[in-house]
Design brief:
Elements lengths: L4 H8 L16 E7 L2 E8 L2 H6 L1 H12 L6 E8 L35 E8 L7 H14 L4 E5 L7 H4 L14 E2 L1 E3 L2 E5 H4 L10 H13 L1 E2 L3 E7 L6 H9 L4 E6 L3 H16 L4 E12 L6 E2 L6 H9 L3 E7 L1 H9 L9 H15 L4
Parallel strand pairs: 2-3, 4-10, 4-11, 5-8, 5-10, 6-9, 11-12, 12-14
Antiparallel strand pairs: 1-2, 7-8, 12-13
Helix pairs in contact: 4-12, 7-8
The structure holds adenosine-5'-triphosphate.
């Protein structure tokens, strides 16, 4: 039986707060979503000082919810109403005073950075299918072909590009307004993870999320780019909707594993792009096979051909099938995407890059 919203709120009521009441009775739970066993919610504290004291409560709430039957993953984030008083000036050595995640500035224009020729979103229905791996490898493969490539990690819940691209620096902002983009392996990049303290669970309420996206697109100095790849969070939430509606995406690529459950979710992501009238450039099947390095036997741990069949049904191209491969994971973890090296894995990403270039999409 899938877990219900009421069951989750019931568990959260069990956590008594030090100053009385619980997370539910004090109306602190926001943006509770349940997506195929994955539960996400935001705990909104009345002010940042209280939020800082609530880390133990946040962690305990995740443990309680994770113990419910039918829950496969829990992500709880702490946020707080903004303080009204001006913050004290930062010490000289502090990172730039970039206030991320404020309410979006009202604007009628699209959030499209100037000088960027194409914007392509890389999405997935489900987390962990390899969307970030594909984004980083495609970015370095396109850059190796002489394209000016940007990579924007918009995965607010689990930004992985600083690790995958080996670039966890804080960006500079000499005027506190413009944010200098970072560079790694020939790619211009920025991640929400570069802006936040590592390991700190901070997520904003809906409007603040929009504000953060607006800042990443318009305050970051992306420069002249042939293409900006946007690594989306998994699923079909606020970030995807905002970017789909406001950033004039030229197209989207959906990554999935061949597994039925991943494909079901991928279909939802595809539906969302179609509703938003974002052209679907194609699908990528990741982890489609595994070649045993010892005996060369080919196995299909997540099934086989499911994404190809789905792409055919939808009438969209299957842009590539990428095997499950240890080197790919190790390279991602070490901050040097596998497409930087030679070999079969790199070839697969270079072929993907060639297809996009030949189709005039980049
Ligand atoms: N083809 C592959 N072979 C081996 N490992 C892979 C492959 N693709 C991805 N991985 C590994 O699987 C894990 C999840 O991949 P990744 O972070 O790219 O997925 P994701 O869809 O972006 O997940 P999330 O949305 O949760 O951030 C990572 O450790 C990555 O190195």
């Amino acid at each position: 039986m899938p877990v219900t919203r009421d069951q989750i709120l019931g568990e959260l009521q069990r956590l008594t707060l030090p100053d009385g009441g619980n997370l539910v009775s004090r109306d602190m739970i926001r943006a509770l979503t349940i997506d195929a066993g994955q539960v996400r919610y935001v705990i909104e504290a009345p002010d940042p000082a209280t939020a800082r004291k609530m880390e133990a409560i946040r962690a305990a709430s995740e443990e309680l919810v994770a113990a419910l039957p039918g829950v496969t993953r829990v992500a709880a984030a702490l946020t707080a109403h903004e303080e009204r008083a001006a913050p004290p000036p930062p010490p000289q050595s502090a990172p730039p005073s970039l206030k991320m995640g404020g309410h979006p500035k009202p604007t009628t224009t699209a959030m499209r950075p100037e000088g960027v020729k194409h914007i392509i979103a890389i999405g997935s229905g489900k987390g962990g299918v390899g969307k970030s791996t594909v984004s980083s490898n495609l970015a370095v493969a396109l850059a190796a072909k002489g394209k000016k490539v940007g990579l924007l990690d918009a995965d607010i819940y689990g930004p992985s590009q600083p690790r995958m691209m080996g670039c966890d620096k804080r960006p500079a902002s000499p005027d506190g307004e413009h944010i200098e983009a970072l560079h790694a392996h020939g790619v211009t990049m920025m991640s929400i993870g570069n802006m936040l303290d590592e390991g700190k669970a901070v997520v904003w309420r809906g409007p603040m999320l929009m504000g953060a996206m607006q800042q990443l697109l318009t305050q970051v100095q992306w420069g002249e780019l042939d293409v900006l790849l946007i690594d989306l969070p998994p699923g079909t939430g606020d970030v995807q909707l905002t970017l789909g509606q406001r950033s004039s995406l030229d197209g989207a690529i959906v990554v999935s594993t061949p597994q039925d459950v991943a494909l079901l979710d991928a279909r939802k992501a595809i539906d969302m792009f179609q509703t938003l009238k974002v052209p679907l450039f194609g699908m990528i099947e990741n982890m489609s096979s595994f070649i045993c390095p010892e005996c060369g036997h080919e196995a299909h741990p997540f099934g086989h051909g499911g994404v190809a069949a789905e792409a055919q049904k939808l009438g969209v191209p299957l842009l590539g099938s990428l095997p499950l491969d240890l080197e790919t994971r190790l390279a991602g973890d070490s901050g040097r995407p596998v497409a930087l090296e030679g070999g079969v894995q790199a070839r697969a990403y270079h072929d993907l890059a060639d297809r996009l270039i030949e189709a005039g999409l980049v």
